[in-house]
Amino acid sequence: MRGFSRRLLAVGAAVLVAVTAAPATAQAHQRKQYVKVGYFTQWGIYGRDFQLAKVQQSGAAAGLTHINYAFGPVTAAGVCDSADSWADWSVPFSDANSVDGVGDVAGQPIAGNLNQLAELKAANPKLRVLISLGGWTGSAYFSDAALTDASRKKLVGSCVDLWIKGNLPGLAAGVAAGIFDGIDLDWEWPGSEGNAGNVIRPQDRQNFTLLAAEFRRQLDSLSRTTKRRYELTAFLPAAPAKIDAGFEAKKIFKYLDFGTVQGYDFHGSWESRTNQQSALRVPAGAPDNPDFSVEVAIDTWRHRGAPGGKLVLGIPYYGQGWTGATGGGNGLFATVTGGAPGRFAVGTEDYKTLKTLPAQGFKLHRDWRSGHSWLFDGTTFWTYDDPAQVLQKTAYIRGEGLGGAMMWSLDGDDERASLTRTISAGLWTPGR
Question: Would you please indicate which residues are annotated as catalytic (active-site) residues?
Answer without folding.
Answer: 188
